[in-house]
Amino acid sequence: MLIVHAADLHLDSPMLGLARYDGAPTSRLRLATRHAFTALIDQCLELDARLLLLAGDLYDGDWRDYTTGLFFLGELARLADSGCRVLFIRGNHDAQSRITRELRLPEHVQEFDCKHPESKCFEDLGIAVHGQGFARAAVTEDLAAAYPDPVPGLLNIGLLHTSLGGRPGHEPYAPCSQQRLEDLGYDYWALGHVHQREVVSAAPYIVYPGNLQGRHARETGEKGATLLESEGGRIQRVEPLVLDVVRWSNVEVQLEEVSVLDDALERVEVALTGARQAAEDRLLAARVTLTGASPLHAVLAADSDRMLAEVRLIAGALDDVWIEKLRVETRERVELEARAAEDDLLAQVARAFDLAAADPEMLADLGAQLGDLRQKLPTELRQGPEALRLDDEATLVRALGEAKQVVLARLLQREG
Question: Do 18 and 26 contact (CB within 8 A), yes or no?
Fold first, then answer.
């Protein structure tokens, strides 16, 4: 018997920030979460899955209208005649307190209560599923502490939206320990909330399937769901189902010792071609990063816009490749520190940047000066994963470092 476990669908995620990208395939990116969900339902039908488990964050906040909910239920309706049941819980993004509109669920789709854990038993499948959804967005208590004992004689599965013991980049919602989950004695824990696939444990299975579709450059690589096969009341195998329709990728291009621009562009083309092949028939959304000690550093840092245009020309010649961003993180072949003891303009400028980056008071003053600027930025630059955090010390230090490279590169050009 086959069971599919998915989480973090984030249907109709607003994809903040797309407006600032000239030439972005906006419609394909905005519809990616829907198309990935359609692919999930297609797989359930093709595999003749008996159960689909959705571990929270089906939506990305309240619906603007009913179309998001209608799409979700319309896709699930395709499973009705196949006999595949659907069970879901709410997470922090689609908590009961956040969704103001409701649609009646079809008979083969069931939601778990948000006030207390409950069990749903399917004697014909030999399965018991235990779960509880989020009543509000910020759940800080350990929901798993109240989950019931396993049902004897059945395959027991726990459905939970949780940060577990904590995961970088994710809010610590419904925290619990791995030991807590193990002690409950279930055969499989179907988790949600963390967007990176992770098999936390195989005895018992504790699995994050990751999100169904990457939505920005921090959600790279294969995305999808998890397939589990059970036989005789035991889990026989667990494996990923790759379902994303847009593949986000960080493409690093090493320019160590490269001194000719055409050679650098050739390396970019090779790297993008490899990433395109790895994405197979999906749209590749690539962030290209140029690295290494390179004689071209001054040229690249001083005129990154030209390099971005060249990289986009390369991408245009490839099928289904979009360049989300170009980062120039090369450095001078001769380290600038070697000139720090000198007293010329270059050394003075370098020291001024370094002193500012190392002084908390100067950073705080810089952040305050930029505060008014931040309020004038468009929404897509103030919200979302790529928002400009002008009040964050690490962001200011990084910005100073980038500014230092641009200024020194231009001084070196003049010096040359």
Answer: yes
CA distance 294 to 257: 5
Structure tokens at 338: 């070697």
Q: How many residues does the chain have?
A: 416
Residue 119 and residue 198 in contact, taking contact as beta carbons nearer than 8 Å:
no
Which structure tokens are listed for 313?
Answer: 């020309």
* DSSP-based three-state secondary structure for 160: strand
Q: pLDDT in tens for each of the 416 residues of the chain?
A: 999 999 999 999 877 666 667 778 988 999 999 999 999 999 999 999 999 999 999 998 888 889 999 999 999 999 999 999 999 999 999 988 888 888 899 999 999 999 999 999 999 999 999 999 999 999 999 999 999 999 999 999 999 999 998 777 678 899 999 999 999 999 999 999 999 999 999 999 999 999 999 999 889 999 999 999 999 889 999 999 999 999 999 999 999 989 999 999 999 999 999 999 999 999 999 999 999 988 888 888 888 899 999 999 999 999 899 999 999 999 876 555 555 566 777 777 877 888 888 878 777 778 777 776 666 665 555 555 556 666 677 778 877 777 776 677 677 666 65
Structure-derived torsion over alpha carbons of residues 248, 385, 63, 161, reported in degrees to the nearest 10: 80
Which token pair is 365? 């003053």
Q: What distance in Å separates the CA atoms of residue 191 and residue 161, rounded to the nearest whole number?
A: 6
Q: How large is the C-alpha radius of gyration of the chain?
A: 25
**∠ at Cα 213 (207, 219), nearest 5°?**
80
End-to-end distance of the chain based on CA atoms, in angstroms? 70
Provide φ and ψ at 66, rounded to 5°: -85, -5
- Answer whether 166's CB lies under 8 Å from 200's CB: no
Please count the other Cβ atoms lying within 10 Å of the Cβ belonging to residue 60. Answer: 20
- Predicted TM-score (pTM) of the model is 0.82
Q: Which long-range contacts (CB under 8 A, 24 or more apart) does 366-374 make?
A: 366/396, 366/400, 367/391, 367/392, 367/393, 367/396
